[in-house]
Structure prediction request, 299 residues.
Amino acid sequence: MEKPIRILLQTTIPTTEDDWSIERFSLLRDYLADLKDDRGNQLFQVTARNRESNVEGNDPILSTLGDSIFDELWLFAVDVGDGLTEKDCAGIKAFHQRGGGILATRDHQDLGSSICTISGVGAAHFFQTKNVDPDPSKHCRDDVDTTNISWPNYHSGRNGNYQRIIPIAPVHSLLQRPGASVEAIEFFPAHPHEGGVGVPPGDRYGRVIAQGKSLVSDRIFNLAVAFEWPPDTIGNQLGRAVAQSTFHHFCDYNWNVDMGCPSFVSEPPGNTMQTESQALDDIKTYVRNLALWLARKPQ
Prediction:
């Protein structure tokens, strides 16, 4: 029997009840842990944790990730810029160099900006004051309702609602529904202020696979960038990676608003993720595809 793929779901903040701690990604955790293959074997072994600090201030797991048992890192950058130390980043780099797959995601403005310090996929994340989008036309506010949040803040809809995605041809396998090689999923969870992602200047191995459309400005923005690198200059086979515009595509509140949110969330929620059955099915399809693809497993 083949061993399950070992996935680390990890936030960049310590356990904090009134914040986006890993406990607010429980639906994702449970869905992945419950998935089975055609023979009834468990597909994924999931570990979910928040950031911790040892006596040197480093996270004991991230800083040694290259020597860990994990096959994938799903990194939810929910910090205000200080969520990763140099040693944490070195551990993630070593993990990537030994073939570990990485999902790296953040949110609006500078929320989660520590993520741009990790090698490879970190450069695909654009913030207001760090690793700024090379396109100056995108340096402007999109969500105009939440006035304390600035760009990048693309408004794809209310928390709890779905957004219709724009798959980029040719349709990437991450977006394909089971049994339909060219039929793409249609929906991601929406969020009032998504962050900015793109292929870094000069990178030849990443491509935008899905885009969204702002409900405020009709502006088209990137939702996900997938990377498949060749071996590096010293022969390391770098792992696959995906840069995602917001962690809200994966958290409980955006799959089901009845799960609740931190007290600082002020925007009124929606509920179409619950009323449109295909919406929840589609994000779950994407999650399953992602977990298999990052580990180089056939679907």
